[in-house]
Structures are given as C-alpha cells and as structure tokens.
Amino acid sequence: MITLTAVLAAAGIVCAVLVSPWWWFGAGPALLLLLLVCWDVAQRRHSVLRNYPVLGHLRFLLEAIRPELQQYFIERNYDGRPFDRDTRSIVYERAKGTDAEEPFGTERDLVQPGSEYLVPSMAPRPVPEDPPRVRIGGPDCTRPYDMALLNVSAMSFGSLSGNAVLALNTGAARGGFAHDTGEGGLSEYHLRPGGDLVWEIGTGYFGCRTPDGGFDAEEFARKAAHDQVKCVSLKISQGAKPGIGGVLPGTKVNEEIARVRGVPQGQTVVSPPYHRVYSNPRELVRFLARMRELAGGKPVGFKLCVGSRREFLAVCKAMLAEDVTPDFVIVDGAEGGTGAAPLEFADNLGLPLTEGLMTVHNALVGTGLRDRIRVGASGKVATGSDLVKRLLMGADYTNAARAMMFAVGCIQAQSCHTNRCPVGVATQDPRRAAALDVADKSERVRRFQEATVKSALQIMASMGVSEPAELRPHMLLHRVDPHTVRTYEELHPWLTPGQLLKADEDGMPSGWAEDWSRADPDRFGR
C-alpha cells in the first residue's frame, strides 16, 4: 500500500510539474493518501490499521455510524453466542483505560425471562484496597500459589501468534495474575516476559511428548521446574468441543511451532480425544499425584467441561479411595471459548458454565473434599458482575479467554483458522503478527484485568460483602417469567459438607443419592 500510494503521488507530482498544473488535482489527494498510509502503519493503537492502512478505517466508520450493523454480522458468522455489544464495549473501554459510564439508566429489558440481578445491601462495605488472592495448594502440595481473582484462560501458542502470547504474558507479569498456556506447550513467548504460568497439558502432551505421542515424564519434570511455572493443569476436555481434541491447521505449523510442540512441520496437528495416561477415575487421580511429584510439589489440577454428574462423582470416590486430591479443578463452560469447534458440538454437548460449576462445587462439598480443592471458572467472564456471579456459584477464582483476546485487539473477524487474522492475534503470518504492538497491548491486558477485578470488588462491597467467601446463592436473583423471581438458593440444590457420605438419604436433593450410589471409582460411563 505504501509503495502504491508513493508511486501514484510521485507520478502526479511529475505530471503536474512537466505536463500541466491540472495534475495537482490528482497529486494532492495522492499525497494526502500517502500521509494517511504512513500514519496508519506507524501508529500503535490499532493493529487492523497497521495491516490494512486506509481500508481499515471503514471498520471504524461502520461502527461509528451504525454499531448494530457490525454486531449483526458478528451474530450471523459467530458460534451463536457472541459477547453482546455492551459487553465488548466494556472490555475495550477498560483495556484503553476509559471505563464506560452511561447516563439515563439501562436499555436492558429487566423483566425478560432469564434476566439475573445481584442483590445490593442497605449496609454497603468499604471497597478493599488490595484485591484478595486465592491460595492454591492442598495437603499434598509443598509449593502453593496465590491465584488472582481473574486470570488469562488457556490459549495456545500456535493458535495465537507469538506477539499475542507476549502481550498476554507481559500484561500478566505487570498485573500480578496468572497466564494459562493452553495445550500448545511452553514457548519463549510464555517465558520471556516473566509472568506466572499455569502450564496446561492436553491429550497431545505437547512440550512433554514422546516420539510416538505419549507422555514424556523426564521432559515434563524438566520444564515444570521453570520458576515461572506456578501450577500444572491436565486438560481433560474444553467447553467448545468436549470429547474431541484440538486442531491446529498445517498452514500454522511452522518450524517454531513444530519445535515447541514436538510435531512435524507443516502437518495439521490433531490432538487425540482421550488421554493415554489413564482409563478410569483411579488412574486419573494417581496420575495427578505423579504429576505433582514430577513438578516438585507445585499445585496440580485438571480442566473439564462437565457432562455426567455421575462420572464426576466417580472421580470424587476415587479421590477418597486413593486419598489423593488435585489442588484445583477448572470448570470450562459449554458456551465455548476462543477455539474453533464443530457447530453441533458447540451447540449440543456439555453443561453450560453455570450448571457445570455448581455441579463440581456441590460434588466436592457433598464428599467433604471442598476445603482441599480450589475451583476455577472459565467461560465468558468479561465484567465485574460476571466474576461475582461465578464466585457466588461456587468458584474460587475465574479465567477469561475471549475478553483477554479483545484486550489484545481481537475484532472477532472469524478468520482464526485461515492464518489471515487482520489484527495479528490468531495467525502465524509474520507480517500480520508484527502489526500487534506488544507494549501497547500488554498494557491493555493489565488495565482490563485490574479494572474488572476492581469492578467486582465494588459490586461485592455494594452487596455488603467484604470478601468472596461471604457471597451466598441467595444474593443472586433469576427471573423465571415476567411475574416470578427466585434466588439461586431456591432454584438450585446445594449440598451440605459431607452430605453424600452419610447413609441417611433423607433431605438429599433429587438424583444426587442415586448418582452417588452408582458412581464407580474403577470405571467411567453410566
């Protein structure tokens, strides 16, 4: 674009000087266009303008004139569950350091069935100056970690560009929160900035993989010893596509990606749908204990999109039988995240985060294991109210993926799988990735996380709550129909500590007693 406009401007000037002054009417606009191109390429705020000078302004013009048109196209081309325009605006504004405040009240339909409301108190509390942190580490963990309330969720290098990973980890380092690597292995982009890492190990065992695709214990121990690796997470399934492995197109598997993952260059990488290291709940918890030992006592947990309550209870039974517990469980919602997935999987498999989170929380409470295991919530956490709701439903902390992508400049162009991301976030094209300015975008990541946690603390204070442990299910209301509102305490069953271990089934919420009696620690399935 620069070359073309420079040639046009030069040609216009030459013609104006040598042929006729009338050529200045063409040379003038060409010069102005050249100046605009140079400005777009040099500026650091908008990656789309750096990759698409001049043309990129059409996007901002469209959004300024008719923002609902842009949202219309997103809804037509996304997975059916995009962030609404108001939520995206909140993320963008917080990332830029200009938090959104609007006059004249809300435009939301407050009597729409499905609407939810947090309950303010007549006796608000002061907002804490320092955000609380969550200690991750059960009785068998010798190197616990204090987790922030909001962290970067799992997104792999390979799916994201090196600059995007650099921006995320640099933001995490500056803000003092954790960055989940995703299953794509540990790269220099994770390690160089110095941010705290949760190293995720998927079914492909990328980064600790034997030549035949198995788990390499020696390589795992070597990399888990990095000071930046604070926790290790075993990915059982993810929200967008539970039951199938991730896919990285061969066009993205360059020499660097191949080296980090331990796979052939240029070939599409398909993670298996299942793990080789276990085949039943007992083997799963034993492997988690082995991972913790290999990691030198660092916290170890697993991530899943919840499906069968009975299967998760089988894992709880295995924990009790083996006297082995993970240090944390991350619940991924079926709403999906940043990963591409078959529509039928995204639309029809797995529990949404609300139900999955409450299932895991209640199962751990009912089996008397909740005080040993921390629970993370991952799925469409973008605002302070999202964070508070997840804590109220049973989470100890939250992770955000899509919102963090917005913070580094994602515009939901729907081209992640094509390697032609227009803003350099989800591509391995060096030219496109170079448009993402790490210094600017890492500061946006830090600002977004800080502002969102601050918003959550302000909301909790307005509810009369000083710390997350004081949140209760009755503090969240759900409108069932235009005339009926119920609290989460009324709508959902909540087990008491150790309730599933008691022989007396009186008062047991419907279905829990049967699922508990049929859960088998020696087999998955129903």
Please characterize this protein's 3D structure.
The chain has helices at 2-18, 24-42, 47-51, 57-65, 67-77, 85-96, 162-175, 188-191, 217-224, 255-261, 281-294, 309-322, 343-348, 353-366, 384-392, 402-407, 430-434, 438-462, 488-491, 512-518; strands spanning 116-118, 134-136, 145-147, 150-152, 178-180, 196-201, 229-235, 247-248, 269-270, 300-304, 328-332, 374-378, 397-400, 476-481, 484-487. The chain is an alpha/beta fold and 526 residues long. It has two domains: 2-77, no CATH class; 134-407 and 436-491, TIM Barrel, CATH 3.20.20.70. The strands form four sheets. It has an eight-stranded parallel sheet with strand order 4-13-12-11-10-7-6-5. The chain has a three-stranded antiparallel sheet with strand order 1-14-15. It has a two-stranded antiparallel ribbon with strand order 2-3. Strand 10 (300-304), helix 12 (309-322) and strand 11 (328-332) form a beta-alpha-beta unit. Helix 1 packs antiparallel against helix 2 (24-42) and helix 7 crosses helix 18 (438-462). The longest helix is centred in the last third of the chain and has 25 residues, at 438-462. It is globular. Residues 65-81 have low confidence and may be disordered.
